[in-house]
Specification:
alpha+beta, 7 strands
């Protein structure tokens, strides 16, 4: 498996949107989860590319996944919920792997690369939220992330979702 990552540019927004669309449909059909269906608006993705660090994951020359990182937490996060004291934290959003590539340890590979990026940015902790689904939560726990309990986030449609907050000191 020949994998690599690169930072996305605004020109990549449509492929990111397509990945989120396909992942959203997969989550809706197989797990009855609709938090990514419809996907994030294309304009929001373009803004993220300009304001944060959005990455593409390639297998050979094919884009197969995406994730977003930034040092500014989502506005909805209650910063008192985080347990690890850190001068600088990184926040992960929208780790998405195309459905046909899921189940092949790519999530593990992506999380390793994300942790490398976090360390290179001199951040001491990685934080994120994950939808409250047992299989997904167990994935992050096995990677050593501390589960900090439920939180409710409002999506772009105004719908509230139960998510679990996670963090890991790096």
């Amino acid at each position: 498996m020949n994998l690599k990552i690169k930072k996305a540019s605004v020109e990549d927004a449509e492929i990111i949107h397509q990945i989120l669309f396909l992942c959203g449909k997969h989550l809706e059909i197989y797990l009855n989860l609709t938090h990514w269906s419809p996907p994030y608006p294309l304009e929001s993705i373009k803004n993220n590319i300009l304001e944060r660090e959005v990455y593409l994951v390639y297998q050979d020359d094919e884009v197969i996944a995406t994730f977003t990182l930034g040092t500014i937490p989502l506005v909805n996060y209650d910063i008192t919920r985080w347990k690890v004291s850190a001068n600088k934290a990184m926040y992960l959003n929208r780790l998405a792997i195309l459905p046909k590539f899921q189940g092949k340890s790519l999530g593990n590979w992506c999380m390793e690369k994300i942790e490398e990026i976090v360390r290179q940015a001199n951040c001491q902790v990685l934080r994120f939220d994950a939808i409250d689904h047992e299989k997904l939560l167990n994935f992050y726990i096995k990677l050593g992330y501390q589960k900090l309990g439920l939180w409710q986030l409002k999506d772009t449609r105004g719908v509230l979702w139960d998510v679990v907050l996670f963090e890991k000191a790096l």
